[in-house]
């Protein structure tokens, strides 16, 4: 069980700020995205704009294999606009 | 006659409270430094012909602080003469003309602090997980920095 955090536009589309999601321990970042979109389908429009932050490190959506521990934070990161 | 040299420090703050340029200047002031350079980001009242009412900022706070810390570390590698670095960013509602971000750097001579401040704001806009929503009269828009590092990558 990982904790998925939603920010900015992704939080508006998901309708929540955070939730726990059950995923396999070993999963690619793209597979993880697909799992999340299954539950929150309105996120699909963000597919080409977002990246993840897994344990507070950026991960692009793709083939990168993630090894997730229970309680890990996975954040959906839409294009940033600080400053 | 030799006084103990102060340790270089990074002052990082994300807050809903109004930011203070005086406070930030004092934080980076150091007897061994002859220069303090500042960048102050403020809310502009217009975008593409639309009137901006205010900005609203949100952040993935622990990661934003960690990414700012990385920027401070990089700045010290690039300009070892730098003494103190302060990055204060406001969260929540920021009305027009109010300050949303202050970056301050002190160094013995001006060239390092001027360059470091410029690098800090450019890199913050590219890498720190903070988002701003621009509120117009009838609608709003989630802004996207052109510097955002992954939107600049070849797909």
UniProtKB/TrEMBL annotation, chain A:
Modification comment: C-terminal thiocarboxylation occurs in 2 steps, it is first acyl-adenylated (-COAMP) via the hesA/moeB/thiF part of MOCS3, then thiocarboxylated (-COSH) via the rhodanese domain of MOCS3.
Modification type Glycyl adenylate: residues: 83
Lineage per the UniProt record: Eukaryota, Metazoa, Chordata, Craniata, Vertebrata
Further facts: This protein is produced by a bicistronic gene which also produces the large subunit (MOCS2B).
Function: Acts as a sulfur carrier required for molybdopterin biosynthesis. Component of the molybdopterin synthase complex that catalyzes the conversion of precursor Z into molybdopterin by mediating the incorporation of 2 sulfur atoms into precursor Z to generate a dithiolene group. In the complex, serves as sulfur donor by being thiocarboxylated (-COSH) at its C-terminus by MOCS3. After interaction with MOCS2B, the sulfur is then transferred to precursor Z to form molybdopterin.
Assigned GO CC terms: molybdopterin adenylyltransferase complex; molybdopterin synthase complex
Keywords, sorted A to Z: Cytoplasm, Molybdenum cofactor biosynthesis, Nucleotide-binding, Phosphoprotein
Pathway the protein takes part in: Cofactor biosynthesis; molybdopterin biosynthesis
Top-rank taxon, per record: Eukaryota
Native source organism of the sequence: Crocodylus porosus
UniProt keyword Phosphoprotein, yes or no: yes
InterPro entries with a match to the protein in the record: Beta-grasp_dom_sf, MOCS2A, MOCS2A_euk, Mopterin_synth/thiamin_S_b, ThiS/MoaD-like
Name this protein carries in UniProt: Molybdopterin synthase sulfur carrier subunit
Keyword Nucleotide-binding: yes
Entry's family note: Belongs to the MoaD family. MOCS2A subfamily.
From TrEMBL, chain B:
Chain positions recorded as substrate binding sites: 109-110, 125, 132-134
Keywords per UniProt: Cytoplasm, Molybdenum cofactor biosynthesis, Transferase
Pathway(s) of this molecule: Cofactor biosynthesis; molybdopterin biosynthesis
A GO CC annotation given for this chain: molybdopterin synthase complex
Keyword Transferase belongs to the record: yes
Sequence similarity: Belongs to the MoaE family. MOCS2B subfamily.
Described function: Catalytic subunit of the molybdopterin synthase complex, a complex that catalyzes the conversion of precursor Z into molybdopterin. Acts by mediating the incorporation of 2 sulfur atoms from thiocarboxylated MOCS2A into precursor Z to generate a dithiolene group.
One of the protein's GO biological processes: Mo-molybdopterin cofactor biosynthetic process
InterPro entries: MoaE_sf, MOCS2B_euk, Mopterin_biosynth_MoaE
EC number: 2.8.1.12
Record protein name field: Molybdopterin synthase catalytic subunit
Subcellular location: Cytoplasm, Cytosol
Organism, as annotated: Crocodylus porosus (Saltwater crocodile)
Assembly behavior: Heterotetramer; composed of 2 small (MOCS2A) and 2 large (MOCS2B) subunits.
Entry-linked SUPFAM superfamilies: Molybdopterin synthase subunit MoaE (SSF54690)
Extra facts: This protein is produced by a bicistronic gene which also produces the large subunit (MOCS2A).
Reaction catalyzed: 2 [molybdopterin-synthase sulfur-carrier protein]-C-terminal-Gly-aminoethanethioate + cyclic pyranopterin phosphate + H2O = molybdopterin + 2 [molybdopterin-synthase sulfur-carrier protein]-C-terminal Gly-Gly + 2 H(+)
GO molecular function: molybdopterin synthase activity
Gene3D superfamilies from the UniProt entry: Molybdopterin biosynthesis MoaE subunit
